[in-house]
Amino acid sequence: MTGAVRFPPTIWADTAAPRAIAPAATGTIETDVAIIGAGFTGLSAAIEARRRGHHVTLLEGKAVGWGASGRNNGQVIPVLTAAEPDDWIHRYGEAGKRVVKLIGNSANILFDLVREFDIQAEAEQTGWLQPAHSPGRVALLQRRVEAWQRHGFPAELRDNQQTADLLGSALWHGSMLNPTGGHVNPLALARGMAKVAEELGVIIHESSPVSRFQRQGAEWVLHTDGAMIKARALIMATNAYTGDLEPQLAPRIARSLIPVLGWQMATEPVDDALRQNILPGRQAVSDTRGDLRFFRYDARNRLITGAAVLGRYNVPDRVKRKAARNLAEAYPSLGERKMTHVWSGYLGMNWDRFPRVHQLGPDGWAWVACNGRGVAFSVAMGRDIARAVTGVDTRELAMPATEPKPFPVHGLLRQVAPTYLAWLKRKDLREPKVQPVKK
């Protein structure tokens, strides 16, 4: 617990440097840029806007890193789930090319920020590995590697033996390695970014949920229980939690994505003798399954992993057992490892798995739908949106804006979304049809 805000029982809450909760917003506040949400997007935007000479006020409903930014697995992945580089260009043309560049550079953007400000976030830029769980997925990875290489990024295809050497397991068939990826303690990163922002002069108010905002004349006006904030520019950085604390904050955007509960966990530390043969290079790993298998080490040599199960009965125990079995299948020497921490949080998903950028009005922006790959992309996108509201022509940025498209019967879809896992598991059993590159 930090101040009056209770954090979920994550390994990150137990290990990140503590942070005192900033005072809630009160009275009338005037600022150049108002930002809603102190996760990676909001913090990155705050740092960039302040570095560009603008007064910035950052409003957080709970505490820095309380939402998805402080609850995720900490994998820094410079690709998105299903929106391949050529698909971006096919959909958005020149703007799509800029998005591809931003995605491909996203891990370096994050790690460069950590290095520049010496943020203590247990950052390891050891690479990200995507192993193929079936022979047919190797062809999919080959196409993916070729696409990223064509756009100038260092993706590499590894064969069976090279993959087994990297993983210390022969369970998978070939892999894609991106050496710019890696992993961080995500809550430590969020708190470290908040410290940087405050040292630069950003004003942060926590325990200050914004209930509504509107454009009035030449400014944005935001309301909390205790304050009214007037700003020239507005950035909404709430993603999967957009409708969680304040349902009427931005209902059309909130209903345009489905918050899906993701489960993460941490094992007991792995001893040195085992670690020599289990993921010796300490890469972040997430494979090609829809029912994803993912894991990596933290700074204390715990394996950070997770799982998903159908239904709502006894979920924490069931995901814990499933994740332990998955690790034991890949690494029999581990056995079914004891999990010391199990936690959950929302990630924002949509059906085509393309993130969306929305223009709220003049100098007002939001983006949503990380689809489980938000760590690197959030930091990169926050920087880009900050540039958009501080004078950079949006035609130079990776911001193909679209109108929100709310899901019909959104509440029902939220209820049935967990059954999506059953479809993914069936899909995992079929070999993919690798489509030709779109011209």
Description:
With 439 residues, the protein is an alpha/beta fold. It has helices spanning 11-15, 40-51, 68-71, 85-92, 94-117, 135-150, 160-167, 186-200, 251-254, 272-275, 315-330, 374-388, 410-416, 420-428; strands spanning 27-36, 56-59, 75-76, 128-131, 156-158, 175-178, 182-183, 203-205, 212-216, 219-223, 227-236, 258-269, 284-286, 294-297, 302-307, 339-349, 356-361, 364-368. It has 14 helices and 18 strands. Strand 17 and strand 18 form a beta hairpin. Helices cover 33% and strands 23% of the residues. The chain is globular and about 60 Å long. The N and C termini lie far apart (52 Å).
Distinctive features:
eight-stranded mixed beta sheet; FAD/NAD(P)-binding domain
CATH architecture of the domain at 11-72 and 187-257 and 352-409: 3-Layer(bba) Sandwich
Fraction in beta strands = 15-25%
- The total of beta strands comes to 18
- Per DSSP, the total helix count is 14
| CATH-defined topology of the domain at 11-72 and 187-257 and 352-409 | FAD/NAD(P)-binding domain
**What does the oligomeric state look like here?**
single chain
Termini, distance in Å? 52 Å
What's the CATH class label of the domain at 11-72 and 187-257 and 352-409?
Alpha Beta
What is the overall shape?
Answer: globular
Q: Name the CATH superfamily assignment of the domain at 11-72 and 187-257 and 352-409.
A: FAD/NAD(P)-binding domain
Structural class call reads alpha/beta
Query: Can you give the helix content as a percent range?
Result: 25-40%
**What characterizes the major β-sheet?**
8 strands, mixed
Return Rg in Å: 21 Å
Poorly predicted regions are: none
Q: How would you state the average pLDDT, rounded?
A: 94
